[in-house]
């Protein structure tokens, strides 16, 4: 279990495309400056690699200038997400229900991040930890907008943080979940987009729930 307060990770909505950037980029800039934000997980809409690379190139500087890492995810994307991340200047990739993590780990060099989530069992989580993931994520909205049971998220994050050294993110879908998720010992508390994208004060509010200003 960690003794210090967890840092924040911001999750974008599922399916971000180029048409979303005019509103997303300024919101990210505001949010990353408002608290101790360690990372942003950018959930991309499926598109061709060139289009996704161009999109990542626009977002990465906004996040990185505020000393946060940009991690890209793309559900149902059949291309090479590692190539998109590297060519776009992102800091890493996030995959749900991972297949061959060893292959991804081998390709993500120079300190780039490999994150994973979407676990249905504890065994699957342990396999991911042994496969070289830099962090595991518990919780987060499903693509259909449904939220997982927060008690289940807390239980899995507490179990992981108590036993394993690999950091984890416990994702909050409401502000009421932030303090409880932090109490699990997770190194990071994730904020779904409803908590920061439309609310300029959302990150500061979450930061306060974690124990004070950044």
UniProtKB/TrEMBL annotation:
List this protein's GO terms for biological process.
thiamine biosynthetic process
Q: What Gene3D superfamilies does its record include?
A: Aldolase class I (3.20.20.70)
Q: Where is the Thiamine phosphate synthase/TenI domain?
A: 23-194
| Cited InterPro entries | Aldolase_TIM (IPR013785), ThiamineP_synth_sf (IPR036206), ThiamineP_synth_TenI (IPR022998)
Entry keyword Ubl conjugation: no
Indicate the enzyme's highest-level EC class.
Answer: transferase
Record flagged with keyword Transferase: yes
- According to its UniProt record, the EC number is 2.5.1.3
Q: Which CDD domains match?
A: TMP_TenI
Record's protein name: Thiamine-phosphate synthase
Q: Which organism is it from?
A: Methylobacterium dankookense
Q: What is the lineage of its organism?
A: Bacteria, Pseudomonadati, Pseudomonadota, Alphaproteobacteria, Hyphomicrobiales
Give me the gene this protein comes from: thiE_1
């Amino acid at each position: 279990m960690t003794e210090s307060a967890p840092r924040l990770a911001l999750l974008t909505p599922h399916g971000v495309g180029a048409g979303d950037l005019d509103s997303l980029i300024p919101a990210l800039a505001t949010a990353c400056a408002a608290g101790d934000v360690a990372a942003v997980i950018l959930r991309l809409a499926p598109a061709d690699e060139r289009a996704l690379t161009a999109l990542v190139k626009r977002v990465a500087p906004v996040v990185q200038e505020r000393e946060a890492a940009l991690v890209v995810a793309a559900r149902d994307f059949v291309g090479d997400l590692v190539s998109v991340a590297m060519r776009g200047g992102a800091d890493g990739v996030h995959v749900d229900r991972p297949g061959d993590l060893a292959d991804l780990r081998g390709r993500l060099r120079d300190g780039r991040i490999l994150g994973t989530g979407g676990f249905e069992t504890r065994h699957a989580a342990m396999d991911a930890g042994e496969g070289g993931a830099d962090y595991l994520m518990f919780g987060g909205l499903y693509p259909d907008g449904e939220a997982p049971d927060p008690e289940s998220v807390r239980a899995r994050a507490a179990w992981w943080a108590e036993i394993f050294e690999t950091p984890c993110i416990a994702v909050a879908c409401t502000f009421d979940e932030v303090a409880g998720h932090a109490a699990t010992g997770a190194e990071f508390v994730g904020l779904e987009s409803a908590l920061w994208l439309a609310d300029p004060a959302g990150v500061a509010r979450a930061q306060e729930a974690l124990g004070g200003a950044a």
